[in-house]
Amino acid sequence: MKYLLNLRVAITVNRITIGFFFFLSGIANYLNFNVANGFYQTVITQKLQIIGPGIPPGWEGVGPLPWLIAIPYAWLLPLAEILLGALFALNYWVRWTGLLLILMTFSIILAFGIIPAGTLFPNGAESFNKNILFMTLIWICIAYDAYEQKMSRRRTEAMANYAVNNAMDDM
Amino acid sequence: MQQASQATVILGGGFAGLFTALHLSQRNYSHPIILIEQRDRFSFKPLLYELLSGELHSAQVYPRYNELLASSSVTFVQDTVKSIHLEQSQVTVASGRIFNYRNLVLALGSKTTYFNTPGAAEYAMPFTSGEQAIALRKHLRHRLHQAIQTSDPARRRLLLTVAIIGAGPAGIELACTLADLLPIWYDELGGDAAEIRVVLINRNKEILKGDVNSHLRCTAQRALKGRIIPVDFLFDAAVSKIQADGVEYQQNNKTQILQAGTIAWTAGTAANPLLMNLPVANNRGRLLVTPTLQLPDFPEVFAAGDCAADSDQPQPPTAQVAYQQGIAIAQNIQRQREGKSPIPVEIKMRGTLMKLGLNEGVANLFNKVQIPGQPGHLIREATYLQLLPNAAHNRKITTEWLTDELFQRHRPASYMQLGQTPWLPGVATLAAGVIFATPLVWRAAQPMQFQQNLHWTGVPTLLNQLAPPAR
């Protein structure tokens, strides 16, 4: 239990999980690069949209991206996922690789829309990716709560010691 | 004892002396080679900071001469040179032995000088050999242990203050190393790392003044301030006295004292006193030599390293110069024995290298490109490890160092403690990622070609089971 409530362990597991998720995602994107509705076709044909597919006319978003941007993006994004995911999981340049992963995720959100495709709202469609990330993120919260409680106990002890010492000095 | 007069006697086992001996031996030199050195171990001076910090260990940068010379034809004599008689072609050592020579190589290096500062010889710790590096490490460890047991804040401050006298390259490299290392050591003992203080004391207002590294001044200054504990500067301060627990100095016509539990001395070197008595021309103790590194009046005598100077082509007293001079002397001695005339030495400076903390350095390649940080550190260590004497020792140590770097083993401090990312494993991961992604990109771009070319490996079948190709 002590091990599970260790903040460093929780963060390490999160970092490895998220990094590995991106690493696998990059591999999957290359494997499904050319299949119908696969990665390449999606990037070349999809519109940039805040609201996803199935939304009334006029809300489909803009795009698709011009070929000059879309083609390099399509070929390099999975590679970036593999490389950055590996670096992030193995704790190398985490600040920079993390920032790039956030930017990549944001670009994917823009490309596919927030609602309802990737969907932050429950829509009955199960999402493995989302659930596993939720699980590890919740663990961070639990471990941090344990850390805060420990700090709070230390502060209380320190205050009590201070009060005792002061009282001794006064005598 | 009378030695054969055909012998080549080499005095001093530093870079110049040791490399002369090893290269003569490698050239199948048919005459006796005798290396006389007072210590039993070779100090690889540029990497003494690594020995102090534990980044490299004694067997790597402070090896025994007997091990280094085991497979060579060099006879090692551990003794102190007492006198040199150039006219009689004789060298006398402390044990009373007399060595006659046909060729003599003077590579006695330099000695630490304290400029007659009272108390310096007694209380300041020099840093020029492996023995001194180990002594300094033990002293610092002892001071930290004393500090952790002390409840008196003033006493603790004294114990945790390190004064480094001299802001030349050695002083700066030592200050940077200690400003990273001591906070980690003290933290591991349970102390407050913020209490550590490293003070660099310099007579001038500028660091690296008049040094071959002077153009690295800005990089060095940034590094000194960017350590775990920033290094404090005490400049324009002339040290007048050294006590057991402090440094007395003059600054702005006032005498002041810096309380310090450790005082390291890197302020200066002087020529070996033996050389001052020789009947040959010298420049402040450095023997004046011809471009072939011979003494003008004694062509059978060569001099190199810190104790020699060619007035036409002055060279800085660095390891890379001494190393090249050693090789050149070996070549010239052999040419002389074959009746050929010696050839002038051409020193190729590859730039300068400095250590600027744990896992940090700067490589100034060919004095044109500055590579700071971890890449600079890796270039510096890889370059110096290539200069290790003896090819077998060199290969073994380089392999050990490379695997230690890659797998992050035997580190005095973790990268997390230093707030760094291991550069070499990071780049190795990137390279591995690119190699891993290459077949996937190939399959996406040219599925048919990929299937045909890699069919024998079974990889296309495996990938097809995961996701069938579209084209």
Structure description:
With 171 residues, chain A is mainly α. Chain A is 68% helix and 0% strand. Chain A contains five helices and no strands. In chain A, helix 1 (7-31) runs antiparallel to helix 3, helix 1 (7-31) runs antiparallel to helix 5 (128-170) and helix 3 (67-89) crosses helix 4 (94-112). The longest helix of chain A is centred in the C-terminal third of the chain and has 43 residues, at 128-170. Chain A is elongated and about 75 Å long. The mean pLDDT of chain A is 77. With 471 residues, chain B is of the alpha/beta class. Chain B is built from 17 helices and 25 strands. In chain B, a hairpin with a 4-residue loop joins strand 4 (81-85) and strand 5 (90-93). The longest helix of chain B is centred in the last third of the chain and has 23 residues, at 423-445. The radius of gyration of chain B is 26 Å and the shape is globular. In chain B, 43% of the residues are buried. The chains are: A mainly alpha (171), B alpha/beta (471). The interface between A and B is medium-sized, with 24 and 23 residues.
Descriptive tags:
heterodimer, A: 171 residues, mainly alpha, 5 helices, 68% helix, B: 471 residues, alpha/beta, globular
List the helices and strands and how they pair.
The complex is a heterodimer of chains A (171) and B (471).
Chain A lengths: L6 H25 L7 H7 L21 H23 L4 H19 L15 H43 L1
Chain B lengths: L7 E4 L3 H12 L6 E5 L10 H6 L4 H4 L3 H4 L5 E5 L2 E5 L4 E4 L4 E3 L2 E4 L3 E3 L7 H4 L1 E2 L3 H19 L4 H7 L1 E5 L3 H20 L8 E5 L15 H9 L6 E3 L3 E6 L2 E6 L2 E6 L2 E4 L3 E3 L1 H4 L5 E2 L2 E3 L5 E2 L2 E6 L4 E2 L9 H19 L13 E5 L5 E5 L3 E4 H14 L4 H17 L7 H4 L4 H23 L1 H8 L4 H8 L5
Helix pairs in contact in B: 1-11, 6-7, 15-16
Brief overview:
By secondary structure, chain A is mostly helical. Chain A is built from five helices and no strands.
